[in-house]
Amino acid sequence: MSWATCTSGHHHWGPRGAAGLLVADAGRVLLQLRAKWAHQGGTWSIPGGAIERAESAVEAALREAQEELGIDRASVDVRGSYVATCGGWVYETVLAVASAPMRVRDASESDGHRWVPLEEVAAMRLHPSFRSAWEDPGGELRGFVGA
Ligand SMILES: [Zn+2]
Q1: CA 88 – ligand 1 centroid, Å
Q2: Could you read off the pLDDT of 58-87 as tens digits, one per residue?
Q3: What pLDDT, on the 0 to 100 scale, is given for residue 38?
Q4: List of residues 6+ apart from 29 with CB closer than 8 A
Q5: For the whole model, what pTM was predicted?
Q6: How far is the CA of 25 from the centre of ligand 1 (A)?
Q7: Domain Nudix hydrolase, which positions (predicted)?
């Protein structure tokens, strides 16, 4: 995997774009504390990463959630997605709800996790990209978690 340069000149991780899994449950969202050594380490975000060859955004999000937080894909129900683009580079936030009791553990790239109530998310030290998505004027992510 490698960095991609978008038409605005930023470096983004993943030449095919990236995806993350946002899991909502009863007005809370599952956030992950990124490991200190990772890019933007020490910030809170959702599990996610670069989309691999021949993989859909949903598959990538579910794989990353399994690798980073041990989430069994059978315990989440995918409902949709929110797509953000930056200079032609795409990040897809896959929106899911917990469909079964979820077991979450900190694995690769994760220093912790928390189910955060909707109204507390903005006050956390968020990964800048996740903050942009969360604070999008359309409010798609907030609306999904609060539904
Ligand atoms: Zn960019």
Answers
A1: 7
A2: 999 999 999 999 999 999 999 999 999 999
A3: 84
A4: 22, 23, 46, 115, 116, 118, 121, 145
A5: 0.94
A6: 31
A7: 14-141
What is the domain range of residue 130?
13-101+108-146
* Number of folded domains that form the chain: 1
Cβ count within 10 A of residue 143: 12
Task: Check which CATH number belongs to the domain holding 87 and give it.
Answer: 3.90.79.10
| 72 CA to centre of ligand 1 in angstroms | 31
Residue 95 belongs to a domain = yes
Residue 59 CA, ligand 1 centroid: distance in Å? 23
Average pLDDT, the chain: 94
Ligand 1 centre to CA of 142 (Å) is: 23
Q: Rounded to the nearest whole angstrom, what is the distance from the C-alpha of residue 7 to the centroid of ligand 1? A: 7
Domain for residue 2, yes or no? no
**What percentage of the chain carries pLDDT values higher than 70?**
100
Distance CA 1, CA 4 (A): 10
Spatial contact of 118 and 28, defined as CB atoms under 8 Å apart: yes
CA–centroid distance, 49 to ligand 1, in Å, is 15
Indicate whether 61 belongs to any domain: yes
Tell me, in angstroms, the distance from the centre of ligand 1 to residue 101's CA.
37
Residue 110, φ and ψ in degrees, nearest 5: -125, 130
